[in-house]
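# nightly structure sweep
# worker-07 picked up a monomer target from the shared queue
# config: single-sequence mode, recycle default, output format = structure tokens
# input follows
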Amino acid sequence: MKYRFYYKNNKAGMLKTGCLMLAFILCFSVSAFSAENKEWTIGWEENQNGPADDEQGTNGWYFLYSEEMDTDGVLDTSKLKECLWSDWGSCWLYYGYEAMWMPERYASKDYDFNKKGNWWRMDSNGIMDPNAGDDSVRSVIAWEAPESGTYSVDMEYTAGTNSYEWEGQTIYAEDGDGLTLSMNTEKDILEKVYCEAVSKEKPDLPSGKLSAETQLKKGERLYISADPGKNGSSAGSSV
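# output follows
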């Protein structure tokens, strides 16, 4: 996904995101007449003003989840909860991850993620994949505005529910089992798109572009939400 934010008062910023992972870039020019420029990035080998492992809020980045799903893009921000940095909770921890951001119940040592078939992923470099089957929650990454202003947002995305291989066969999701990707503020849906599951006829994940404009006060947040709907199996956002 790619996001661009522009201030109307000659201050500018850009937020960019990239696939089966979220790769965010946020650039903010403090003044049109100043040589001082800042960038906030996620998703690159070397980030500028990016987030940190095991620390919420670094450079304005937050890793969240919601138990509300299948809402057609509506996001009740009062019900968002912060993820915990944990070495427990997902089968991806067998494949190169030492720890990642986890919903609290996944992070409990009493939680049997193997039995649940939980393949949730959310690291500190932009991956957002709510793939946890019947135990899914909605994954959310938030960015907090450093100054008040009007922001224009452009977002390119690749997202949806992928197929997978099992005993030599390609398994596809049931009809209607896709993912809703949305850009939200505390009160509004800025934009949303329903990304359908891949099929034999359409084997590629959906991709496209969303654009919006919004006013943010200092400290208010923009949210990128990946809602897996009623079934989170193989659901993910490729941004």
